[in-house]
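Quick illustration, no need to memorize.
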Amino acid sequence: MDRQRAGDEGAGRGESDVTGVAPPEGDPAFWLAWSTRVHELLSQVLDGTPAAIAVLDTELRFRYVNDTLARMNGVPADEHLGRTVAEVVPGVEAGEDVLRAVLADGVARETISSGHTQADSSLERRYWHGAYHRLRQDGRTLGIVGIVLEISAARQEQRELERARERLALLDEAATRVGTTLDMDTTCQELAEFLVAKLADAASVKVLPEDGASRAPRDGSLRLRRVALAATPELEPAMRSLGRPGEVVDHRPGSSLVRCLADGRPVIDDLTDERHVACPESHTGDVSAYMAAGIHSALIVPLTARGHDVGTVTMMRAGASPLFDETDAVIAQDLAGRAAISLDNARRYTTEHNAVVQLQRALLAEPGRPHPDIDVAYRYRPAGRGVLVGGDWFETVALDDGRTLLALGDVMGHGLEAAVAMSRYQAMLRVVAAREPGPDRILLELDHLLHTTAADRPATCVIAIADPRRGTCTYASAGHLPPVLFRPDGRATVLPVPPGPPLGTGHSRYDALTTACEPGHTLLLYTDGLIERRHEDIDASLRRLTRVRGCPAPEDLLDQVLDQVAPADPEDDIALVAARYDRSDD
């Protein structure tokens, strides 16, 4: 079963949001599908907690229970599902009026219930403390999540309740601070820093190699890459000497980290135990170096997502900090379980991102050759690592009579499909350009071909055909940003090319613009990743581009434009084409 969160951060007044499509209220079909999707993740995160946790729909029927609640009620977890509280535990006064009030107004409430369940107990009467939060999505009430602790004594009740609250608060905070991007290294660093702030004096995150080469060739050690390292200011100098991000670390068979991954359970290393110190090969690192740095205990937790290992996180404590114990291990495993999902998502994204970038570069590596009297330069810069690569492309075609066609386009969408669609546009352009005389006719034919072949990814495109013999250049645009002409005196002008509809829409019309093509002028074609900014008008973005001064050679102009105009971490691909006619008049 796929694992998802039953609830996210509080959506106001103690409410929680549920991922997925919002159903009609109380829709049992939705809850059945929802339960299937989320049950595995909930079990992984919540089955180890001492708190009993349940998710109920709007009719107060169980849709999820963890192992603790099943044991508390004396009823197997699967026998709860679809039944009401009264049906499962008829001997308990569950306070249904409180639950229905939570459903009605969304205000989180706590209540005390009492009675007997089917579980064996020597107590004459049992008592439970419950906290309930409403689940909502898209304005619809979906149900309630309840957290229940059995009360054995007033002091024990307070202690357990505070622990449960602290643990849930910690998990909620981690959800907002770890996994904020789809960059794996960033996510690992966020996890290490969060653990140092909350549980440890130092933390190191290591991941298994993406190529599957997890075994050292000589002795069969387990090989991981250290991705992130964080420490308190007092311990940071010592940690820098013990390791650095990016290095490959081999762990001997039988060491703590290897045992942690093999068993899928946390491992605590007590460096104050003389028996452990006498057997250094069983530890997670260099014991003598750790002890010299004042580190007295380590906690290694596996990072596992979707049934496979991603890596490990190692936490260390030093000085006056207490030794790690089983309570720390349970909390750390909860945090690691959530972080592992984010890491796995980031790794999957990174793998696709790198594959698309390589495909994109391969497809753009060999544009056609222009005529000798046209100097042309190209640049392609992929989007930042946290953004899916798009379908930017460019092409050059040498036409009859000394003319040169320059084209640049942007396929709508991102990812592998957009990159593949890009290659179709390039191939079609080369065929159409050989038989159509002008850029407007070329765009019209491309639009017709793509529409009749049911292309599902429209694209913008701008075409310029330079004709040095006649001293002209003719342009046409299919919804693309206008070209910019850099003159010899250093001024830049946005060319008013009439924008037609994007390619692939069908029944379109495109108009051409012809201007003088003079030696020394440099033409720039670009995609929107160069200039577009969130919360900024496109006219302001274009003015930034036209403030670039000078008219260097095309290669130098592209370097200048990328340096002065392009964002440091672009949210979209950037493709550039610059061309200049340098030959003097015949």
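The longest strand covers residues 126-137.
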